[in-house]
User: What shape does this take?
Amino acid sequence: MDTHGAVIFEAVTRRFNGTVAVSDMSLHVDAGTIVGIIGPSGAGKTTAVRLMTGGLGPSSGRVRVLGEDPRSFRRRTRERIGYMPQQFTLYPDLTSGENVDFVASLFGLLWRRRRRRVRDVLRLVDLWDVRGRRAAALSGGMQRRLELASALVHDPALLFLDEPTAGVDPLLRARIWDELHRIRDAGRTLVVTTQYVTEAEECDRVALVADGRLVAFAAPDDLRRTAVGGDVIEVRTNVPLDAARIAGLDGVREIRQTGPRTFLATVDDAGAATPDVVDAVDAAGAETVSVREYRPSFDEVFAALVARAAANAPDAGEGDRARDPGAPARAA
Assistant: This one.
């Protein structure tokens, strides 16, 4: 395995009194990318992040972050890292502005730059207008955004964000992701956990996690291909057509009828197979009204990959079932 990644897991397992929270997980986070760790509550996401930040040590395996063991970071290395925990950890009696300013001062930002960064990050998370309100008086969603502002204020090289968009409305969620993309484009590295499977689209690579196991780790489009077995094209015809009549074409793996005049074809390559599928429809006595590449949602992708992993995995007893001690005990 390459030893120069921003974050490296090598066969990492973490147990809690016999319960396996992370099981034999290996992944490599390249610098300058966004990696999403995606899965339901209890999947092991928070435990994985705590292993990356040094809050926990592995029961077995090896963790390296910026080339160091997280449990013995040098001070200079810690200053390059930002961390947004899942739970609220700031000072409830300080105002929003005071909390972010205090965190910025811990990282050595001088007054002029500190004032500018506090203003910028509070505006980003839509808290500038409540900068004088005590943190204890903020709603749960506002507290999440305040944690995010505090993690961003010192402009770290490596960011760990545990559920940064939980409890945030869709419009603000889009703004937050725009900022995360900007940070990535500036050369920073981000590791983001989320229960929102659709946010996989926002990441460069996605680690799908279920029951403490790494189900898949790849770019979003590669995960789609893995889940469905190739590219998928959706065909609509002018008259009802039994799509089974065009099965057996070279490069076509599967034909699935979705309506009297529509079907999905799973193919090796959409660009190469589309003309052959259109010709086969014509030969079957119909005309193609439309043909387009079909992109399954990430809910479908996640469900398919998790089901496949469960079917291939050995049965685990109740004592080995993964449980993320840092996550709420609720279904995703």
The longest helix spans residues 170-185.
